[in-house]
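Troubleshooting log. The previous structure file for this entry was overwritten by mistake, so regenerating from the original sequence record. Sequence copied from the archived sheet and checked twice against the printout by T.R.
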Amino acid sequence: MSFKLNLITLSLLAVSTSGMAANFGVGNANTTAVNTHKYECKRCTNLVGYSGEVSVAAGYNDIGDIHAGNALGTAKDGGIAAVSGDVRYQSESGYQARIQAHQLGMDNGFAHVSGGKAGLYEFSLDYDAIKTYKAGDVESSLWHNDGMLTPSDAINSFDLAQRREKVALGMEYGQDFYGAFVKYSQEDKTGHKSASLVSPSPINFGLPTDSRTKQLDAGVNLSGENWLTELSYFGSYYQNNIDHLSLPYANDVYSAAPDNQAHQVALSGQYQLNRTVMNGRIVTGRMIQDDNLIQVTGNPLQNWDGQIDTLDGRFALTSMLTNRLRLGGSVDYSKRDNKSSTAEFAQYNFNSLTGAFRQNTPQDIERNTYKVNASYRIASGYRLQAGYDRKEVERTFSDREQTNDDNLWLKFNVRALDKVNFNLKAEHANRSGSDYEANELTSSENNALLRKYYLADRTRNAVELKVNYTPINWMSLDISSRYAQDEYDDTQIGLTESEDYGYDANLNIAFNQHVDGYVFAGQQWINSNQAGSQSFGAADWMADIEDEFINLGAGASYSGLMQDKLTLGIDYLFSNSISDTDVTADTTNPYGDYYSYNHSASMYADYALSEQMALKLTYRYERYFDTDAANVGVNDIPGMITLGDINHNYNAHQVMLSFTYQLR
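Regenerated output below.
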């Protein structure tokens, strides 16, 4: 083989040094004399007709808490059923269609239907259902009926859960150098979520959810040999069917999310010049909110005319200067011009009117982000990358009107070693900005020494290491570790320091052609320190928050049993999270800890009845426990009514039998 390659190299050198210019591109090959009738692709399959699979499943759920529905796909107790599949069709003339489904019949599932002619047009229809569960059988003394919250001695029982159903219809058309697309979607959201009001004492209640979001996207695009461009429109319309809520003895005690809409028009493009690629995008938009306001004493406004005009732009460039060196950079611009109405509003001091009035101040935000980077290939398998990022933000009517974030980073990648690849990244970041004007532009209820964490001076140092180790061809180990520290040295009241570190490890083993397995582990620690003041002066208490997360898992599969018809498998996952908070003033006291853990396991047996039919039996188990100090009994705190202790402690089981048919 070496001798043949040397002959080819010498032949090419001879041609390149001759006086004639030759083009050896594949497109210029002369194939007129080639007889292709005897060639046959042994691995090619006939794509004309139907292909794919259809699966029907039925089973049984034994669930002690609806929260288990987040992991098992449905919170229904007893018999369950679902349909899944992925079927494709292709005709000889180029028409094609596809139908996909996943767990239709469960609380969480989707369906997709598309069809058209390859390279010309395509129609699509999508359906998505997502339901998330927080707690079940929550009790409240407030009943909701058409905007009225009515107290009653009879308990109102409901679930804290949110269901989203989305339907979308789309069309794409393209031919030669031009194309177009349009997509319309509609999402309905229903359910209940926790909310609070003061009337006259604090009370938690289940806020009903009933809203609809409509989305319309459309655009046209053009392309050439080395360029492309697109003009597009994106529109969103939100309608909340839950308006202001009232009590029998007090009107408009709670305002739900107001109706609003947002519109954007975008022009984007890309151009390639030799080894340089440039792309850009400019977007102009408007967000509108025009809804009735809750009337407050002394407030003259009947409705709110909210409007924010947006302008976003981006230009990026990357160029291969040599075979070793690549340079790149980008500029991003974003502006939020708040043109909402202003008026005088009565001022509150904790729980009473002060008698003073103050005008609301619509805030404008402007951002500029600059990035430059370089990538240099030191040698084959060794690459060094470096970059500098700067973000400048200006906010009107803010504690601090201007902040500047600077970030310098470095990456070193090694791919040349025989069995080990690794990536190393380090970064140093710093935030500074203009002087604080806390007393002039913010509420007098804020301490003048308070520094909000996203505005305060900050220094960040971070490092990350990723290693891939393949000692033998049937074993692979991936390890990544990271550490980051943020210091707020100039903050007296607020977040003063935080650190975030952890690791992830994944081991994959293929013992032989029938047996394989995996093991993974990951941990993360987030520690932060915060200073506060009870006297609106210097710091007189400190808080230490320690958060810890762990994820462990393992799994294995064994195929080839019973004459290659049976495959057995098992998967296990353990996760745990702990949050400890200690507050130190005169003494050190724990403050509202949080703890949770989860065991989940899945075992399955997959049996091939024939080349086209298979049966699969699956058993899933979940053990979940959490305790949050913020969740207390209905009347555990004097003067406050809660939704009760909604922590979780349950075991859940699911058994499913599915039948799959392969289309060929």
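The first strand starts at residue 49 and ends at 63. Archived copy saved in two places this time.
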